Structure formats: C-alpha cells, structure tokens
C-alpha cells in the first residue's frame, strides 16, 4: 500500500496555476522565486516557525500575491523536503 506524501508541486511563475489544496509562496533573500506548496504544511511546526520569521520581517502585506518567506531557496527546499518525510 502506497502512502501519499505532500510535496512541493513546482517552482511556478504564473499566478493562475495554484491547484485546490495548495498555496503560493515567494522564497528568496534578494530575488524571489514562487513555489506552490500543499496547505498541509501549515500544520507543521517547522513551517509555522518559518512563517513567524516571515511575519517579523515582512508583516502581513504581501504585494506579490503570496506569502513571502525570508530565506534562501536552498534552505526552503531542504525544510519542505523534511516536511514530506514527517
């Protein structure tokens, strides 16, 4: 029996490609890259910590249309890959 694990859908550049059950985040320190990730990540303590850091740095105003995460792309991908193993 296979177990379905949540994962990053893809790096994304268009705004109309967010499937149901996912949301867009912008990741990066200087140049932001857009990722579409499962909403199930919102329940994970590691991701909640990352969101708290984003709130401290950017507040709640996200002019790009998605949540902005203030970390490098490599750190984000590493963190989300750990979330898929939980």
UniProtKB/TrEMBL annotation:
Q: Name one Pfam family in it.
A: Auxin_inducible
Q: Which InterPro entries match?
A: SAUR_fam
Please indicate which superkingdom the organism of origin belongs to. Answer: Eukaryota
GO biological processes: response to auxin
Stored PANTHER family: SAUR-LIKE AUXIN-RESPONSIVE PROTEIN FAMILY-RELATED
What family does the entry list? Answer: Belongs to the ARG7 family.
Q: In its UniProt entry, what is this protein called? A: Small auxin up regulated protein
Species this protein is from? Anisodus tanguticus
